[in-house]
Design a protein that fits this description.
Blueprint (H helix, E strand, L loop, with lengths): L1 H21 L3 H8 L3 H4 L19 H12 L10 H11 L4 H13 L13 H16 L19 H13 L9 H11 L6 H11 L9
Helix pairs in contact: 2-6, 4-5, 4-6, 7-10, 8-9, 8-10
């Protein structure tokens, strides 16, 4: 009986430890984020001229996954992925999952930002496309669904959303054998024929006027 109790206590302590680590350490993350400031900005707000998207509005779980994907070159093996190849060596400076959790914890400690529209499109067509195709996974309000591994889109730069859709459609992203979630998105993008769908959907998402709130 004592052995069972000890095992149960050990399991509980491990569960608590795992969830504590999963939250990351803000102070350590702040130091790690210094490498990111040059492109993504002091407040992780992103820099259009450098092609660096806002990070602060995105969910922690997705940021961690993409840092891991960049480090493993799941998002940078294609020679046409200029931004991925630029990001990959930076992601590799984060030595392990704990470091990724730390830097993301710091990013999520920053206040959200209100992204501005940078591209033009047909909002109504974008709404129709989004609700028919995207909303089932990313949610009717584009706030994402972790259970479905679908990231939030609201609060993300419209130009960045368009670029990623184009990358999926052209096979620049989602082609790596180990990127199973990227492969799902690439499959969908390849089978959508409307050439304006990327900007229309991105403009519609921007029109929702949602500033993504931090989830701490």
């Amino acid at each position: 009986m004592k052995t069972i109790k000890h095992l149960a206590l050990f399991a509980l302590l491990m569960f608590i430890a795992d969830n504590t680590l999963a939250q990351g350490r803000v102070r350590q993350g702040k130091a790690l984020f210094r490498k990111c400031v040059e492109c993504h900005g002091e407040n992780a707000q992103g820099t259009l001229s450098l092609g660096a998207p806002t990070l602060v509005n995105q969910d922690a779980w997705y940021l961690q996954r993409q840092l891991a994907n960049f480090a493993a070159e799941l998002r940078s093996e294609d020679p046409n992925d200029y931004f991925g190849k630029r990001m990959s060596p930076n992601a590799k400076t984060l030595k392990d999952q704990q470091a990724r959790e730390d830097v993301v914890a710091y990013i999520k400690s920053l206040p959200p930002v209100d992204v501005q529209r940078k591209i033009r499109g047909d909002v109504e067509k974008g709404r129709q496309h989004y609700q028919m195709i995207c909303g089932a996974c990313h949610g009717p309000d584009a706030m994402g669904n972790k259970i479905l591994n679908a990231p939030r889109l609201a609060g993300i730069n419209d130009w960045y959303l368009k670029r990623q859709y184009t990358n999926f459609k052209k096979g620049v992203r989602g082609a790596h054998a180990d990127d199973k979630y990227g492969a799902q998105m690439a499959y969908i993008a390849r089978h959508l024929q409307d050439e304006n769908i990327a900007q229309d959907v991105a403009v519609y998402i921007q029109s929702l006027k949602k500033t993504a709130a931090n989830e701490k």
